[in-house]
Design brief:
The complex is a heterodimer of chains A (701) and B (243).
Chain A (H helix, E strand, L loop, with lengths): L1 E6 H16 L36 E8 L3 E11 L2 E14 L4 H4 L3 E14 L7 E9 L7 E10 L2 E10 L10 H5 L27 E10 L5 E7 L18 E9 L2 E8 L3 E11 L29 H10 L1 E8 L3 E8 L5 H15 L6 E8 L2 E9 H8 L12 E4 L3 H6 L7 E14 L6 E14 L4 E13 L22 H5 L4 E15 L2 E9 L4 E10 L6 E13 L7 E15 L7 E9 L5 E10 L5 E9 L3 H4 L6 E8 L11 E6 L16 H4 L9
Parallel strand pairs in A: 15-16
Antiparallel strand pairs in A: 1-19, 2-3, 2-13, 3-4, 4-5, 5-6, 6-7, 7-8, 8-9, 9-10, 10-11, 11-12, 12-13, 14-15, 16-17, 17-18, 19-20, 20-21, 21-22, 22-23, 23-24, 24-25, 25-26, 26-27, 27-28, 28-29, 29-30, 30-31
Helix pairs in contact in A: 4-5, 5-6
Chain B lengths: L2 H17 L2 E5 L2 E5 L5 H9 L10 E4 L4 H19 L3 H16 L4 E2 L6 H6 L10 E6 L6 E6 L5 E4 L19 E9 L5 E5 L15 E6 L7 H14 L5
Parallel strand pairs in B: 1-5, 6-10
Antiparallel strand pairs in B: 1-2, 3-4, 3-5, 6-7, 8-9, 8-10
The chains are: A mainly beta (701), B alpha+beta (243).
Chain lengths: 701, 243
């Protein structure tokens, strides 16, 4: 079950503008585009049923729907790096029911999910082919589980492919498994899957029957059209859909490209017609048209001696630079502004816009501008602009653009913060955001959803202390189709998350959280918070967090410690008996050897009192879209965990800026969690310091 | 960047503005400016005299040694490889390339678009010159493209409109150790595009009129010096003042 949150004001506009966001990438190149790689039926670059060694351009995301008589396949394939492709897929098996019990799943047909990965081992050169190694449908029930090594070599408009496959791709056994010659254990493929599904079954890899497969792809003289001929190594004798008749090992088809779409039509097994629709966009280049004020010109003569219109500066900062000014201070030669960046996620653009306004609005004798960006009550980062070189740069007084070299980012200096006359801040605040919960592959219906509004309100008691609350208001849902609320699987673990259906099917209006929160920067680079109350849908309690995060550092470390009790799903305020300590040492690392990547390690005790580590891998693309995956490895065995064997998930984090005509900050997160049970489950803390301090060493923006 | 450095930069800007002395040679006509001019001011006397092909217009800094130091590095690397190889054909090919590069007229090219009309309406395209000596090369639309690098002889061949760069590749002219699978296309505006021209990597890339097509050296798997050699060759070609 996955949750997506969106600020209310952006939600409707976002949907309307989505096509503009994805189409903007193709306008810069007037040369004929290369035909490019096309997707196979299962998703991922390939022919029809079989993969090739080819890769899509780095950052390509392809959404695919393909159909033949027995199977319908929905997949999303992402080229994370130019050497790595990953695909997730849902399969609908038309010849089988979801279950034998009509009261459980009605007449819904069988659904299965799968994950594929492919690595490029060798790039093509004059004499050598491109070589890739891939694994299909690992980590699930493995309907199509295969391993393969495949070669591709292009000759003018013909692309030749040859591969060897094991598992589903090698079912025909048209050659002897070469590993079987080396060891007997490779001659037979073990049946079933390890643990409770969801694990990578290494012990099956490269075992059992093997087959050669391959084919030819022909780029016709008509640029949008490609033809495919394929020989496959599967005999369909043991297909999940049944024993399928195969009149021929040869499949053929055509792919027609229309803009970002690919349409394909093919004839498989000598007796079955198939088709597909694919839509691709590139996560690096996807962008959005923007309507924003022109950069303020800095005139040749600056002779302002005092600030005459006190409203002009805050108004200009907000309208032209998205900066909400909280307060300002002027010394003999410095001007300091304190506030929040509300609009521009590009820090350099934001600094230039602010600097241009300050250059024209503050007295000309000022030599230095200081911008203190806040996150909540935390002074996150100070940008110091040297006025003379900055003004020269924005007036284009040099052949070289030197705007960026005219300022530095640093930990807010004690003196800068001391200037600030902080009035006691208290008062009410409120806001709202749209939420959307969706879940795929349920017995009641394949797609289930719940949508509504999170209404936030709070009271700030002082600069560091505030009371927060959120009400969840459900507006639209089909969760009333649920025919059970607690699954029947019994495991030794406490049910720390598997009452999920109970919680989301409560009343239309419910209390999401209500808690008291204290936050402060306790030393340079050190941040702390403590909180207590109803912390999330399922837990209440108390907790604290400490984080060390220097400005523009590749690493941040911290820990959190919480004592929580499980909330009752029967009403808003009661608790169940289950209570526990949970907490982690948190390490956030952006390794230099993996560009635009963040690795997160949370090491400690999870909600079910299991101990271990959650590893999160996030890759950022040039557009700001982040694709991530995580897995929790704890001392709970696969059998104790239950279906899925361990907690894992994937997510897509999308900047709102890509949907908005005006510059916008913030982002929405689209998670996909194949199966979530009780092991390796963290507390969903209502606020985390790593998010609060994002501006100090930005990864997301 | 620390504060003293920023302060120094500030001083530099001030001194540039007050003591700027700029000399610009436009197609052989030399002018001196006591106050640093902006681009439009420099171009204004020449802009409307002819139908200039602005995409190939280039600005060079003639009092900078950067391009010459690049050439020295390239020649020194080529000489080192030639000295350490027993392959006479390879050392001959490197010598041919060195001879070409030694003939090149060089100056540090300032990477920015030169377009008089754009400079008059867009402040960002009308920067002020820093103090120093410059050369601006304006020309009509070139009718040729220039082929150089790992070739037996540098050539200028007629430009073909709407044609893939592979049409200019003449394998007979490639020298020993030339990589016949791709060309580095240095467009006249300074952009470098690698274009596959072989049966396995051919992609449609067109050369602009006046582009340089560089034939690169084959890069052995274990000898990274050839990759460096090719990079230097491409970087240097950007700073070449074309005939």
């Amino acid at each position: 079950m996955t949750l997506f949150r969106l600020p209310f004001r952006l939600s409707i506009l976002s949907l309307l503008l989505m096509p503009a966001a994805v189409c903007a990438s193709d306008l810069s190149n007037w040369q004929l585009p290369p035909a490019g790689a096309s997707q196979m039926a299962h998703g991922g670059v390939g022919l029809i049923q079989t993969p090739t060694a080819r890769m899509a351009p780095a950052g390509d995301l392809s959404m695919n729907y393909t159909d033949n008589e027995e199977y319908r396949l929905w997949s999303v394939s992402i080229q994370l790096f130019d050497w790595m492709e990953s695909t997730i897929r849902y399969t609908d098996v038309r010849t089988r029911l979801y279950s034998d019990d009509p009261s459980f799943s009605g007449d819904q047909t069988y659904k299965d999910k799968g994950i594929d990965v492919k690595f490029r081992l060798l790039q093509e050169s004059s004499y050598l082919p491109q070589v890739s190694l891939g694994i299909r449908d690992f980590g699930g029930t493995g309907l199509f589980e295969s391993e393969y090594l495949t070669l591709s070599k292009k000759w003018h408009n013909l692309d030749f492919h040859l591969g060897i496959g094991w598992g589903y791709l090698g079912q025909d056994g048209n050659i002897t498994n070469p590993f079987c010659q080396l060891r007997d254990s490779f001659c037979n493929r073990p049946e079933g899957y390890g643990g409770r599904g969801g694990k990578v079954d290494y012990d099956q890899f490269f075992k059992g029957p093997a087959s050669l497969f391959g084919g030819i792809e022909y780029q016709t003289p008509w640029q949008p059209l490609r033809l495919k001929l394929e020989y496959e190594g599967n005999n369909y004798q043991q297909d999940f859909a049944g024993n399928l008749t195969q009149d021929s090992n040869w499949n053929f088809g055509a792919v027609y490209r229309w803009g970002n779409f690919n349409f394909d039509l093919n004839y498989q097994r000598g007796n079955t017609l198939g088709f597909g629709v694919h839509y691709a966009l590139n996560l690096h280049s996807v962008s959005q048209y923007k309507v924003k004020p022109a950069l303020r010109p800095v005139p040749a003569q600056l002779n302002r001696t005092e600030i005459s219109d006190r409203d002009a500066l805050p108004r200009a900062l907000l309208q032209e630079a998205g900066f909400a000014l909280q307060t300002a201070h002027m010394t003999d030669d410095e001007f300091v502004i304190y506030g929040y960046q509300m609009g521009y996620r590009d820090h350099d653009e934001a600094v230039e816009r602010i600097g241009r306004i300050l250059a024209t609005e503050v007295p000309a004798h000022i030599q230095r501008y200081r911008i203190v960006n806040y996150a909540g009550n935390l002074a996150a980062v100070e940008t110091v602009i040297e006025a003379a070189p900055f003004i020269a740069a924005v007036r284009y007084e040099s052949l070289h653009n030197r705007v960026k070299s005219s300022y530095v980012r640093q930990q807010p200096a004690a003196q800068t913060l001391a200037y600030r006359d902080i009035p006691s801040q208290n008062g009410f605040f409120a806001g709202s955001e749209v939420f959307f919960i969706q879940t795929f592959g349920n017995p009641e219906a394949f797609y289930m959803y719940q949508a509504g509004l999170f209404a936030n309100a709070g009271y700030r008691l002082s600069n560091n202390l505030m009371l927060n609350s959120t009400a969840k208001i459900t507006v639209l849902e089909n969760f009333d189709k649920f025919n059970y609320t607690v699954d029947a699987e019994q495991t030794p673990l406490p049910r720390v998350r598997t009452y999920m259906r109970e919680y989301v099917t409560g009343s239309v209006v419910s209390m999401e959280n209500l808690y008291l929160q204290w936050q402060d920067q306790i030393a340079p680079n050190w941040f702390a918070q403590a909180y207590g109350g109803y912390l999330e849908t399922m837990y209440g309690g108390v907790g604290t967090e400490l984080l060390y995060r220097p400005v523009d550092s590749n690493i941040a470390v911290g820990f959190d410690l919480n004592y929580v009790r499980q909330r009752s799903y029967d009403n808003e305020f009661d608790f169940f008996d289950y209570k526990t300590f949970t907490g982690h040492i948190n390490v956030y690392w952006k390794p230099e050897f993996l560009p635009d990547t963040q690795l997160t390690f949370n090491i400690g005790q999870f909600l079910a009192k299991d101990k271990g580590v959650n590893v999160d891998f996030a890759k950022r693309f040039n557009s700001g879209i982040v694709v991530g995956a995580y897995a929790a490895f704890t001392n709970v065995s696969a059998e104790e965990y239950g279906e899925g064997s361990f907690t894992k998930g994937f997510y897509l984090s999308i900047p709102f800026d890509l949907f908005s005509l005006r510059p916008a900050k913030g982002r929405g997160r689209l998670p996909w969690v194949p199966i979530a049970r009780d092991g390796g489950q963290p507390l969903n803390r209502p606020a985390t310091l790593i998010d609060m301090t994002e501006q100090r060493s930005p990864f997301y923006d | 960047m620390n504060k003293p450095l920023l302060f120094t930069l500030g001083l530099l800007f001030c001194s540039n503005l007050s003591l700027a002395k700029v000399t610009v040679d436009v197609n052989g006509e030399r002018r001196q400016y006591s106050e640093a001019p902006r681009l439009a001011e420099v171009l204004q006397p020449y802009a409307l005299k002819q139908q200039w092909y602005w995409p190939a217009a280039a600005l060079y800094r003639t009092d900078s040694q950067y391009a010459h130091s690049l050439r020295r590095e390239l020649i020194s690397l080529a000489a080192e490889i030639a000295q350490q190889t027993d392959d006479k054909s390879l050392s001959d090919a490197l010598a041919l390339m060195q001879a070409q590069v030694n003939q090149w007229q060089l100056a540090e090219r300032i990477a920015m678009p030169l377009d008089y009309d754009a400079a008059t309406v867009q402040a960002a395209l009308n920067p002020r010159f820093d103090a120093g000596d410059y050369r601006i090369v304006l020309g009509r639309r070139p009718g040729v493209v220039h082929i150089a690098g790992a070739v037996k002889r540098a050539l200028s061949v007629p430009h073909n409109s709407a044609s893939h760069v592979a049409v200019y590749a003449q394998p007979d002219h490639f020298s020993y150790a030339a990589d016949s699978s791709k060309l580095a296309v240095v467009q006249p505006d300074g952009r470098i595009v690698i274009a596959g021209i072989s049966s396995w990597n051919s992609q449609h890339v067109e050369a602009m009129p006046g582009a340089q097509l560089l034939v690169l050296f084959t890069e052995p798997l274990l000898d990274k010096r050839f990759a460096r050699l090719n990079t230097l060759l491409q970087q240097l070609a950007v700073h070449r003042i074309l005939p």
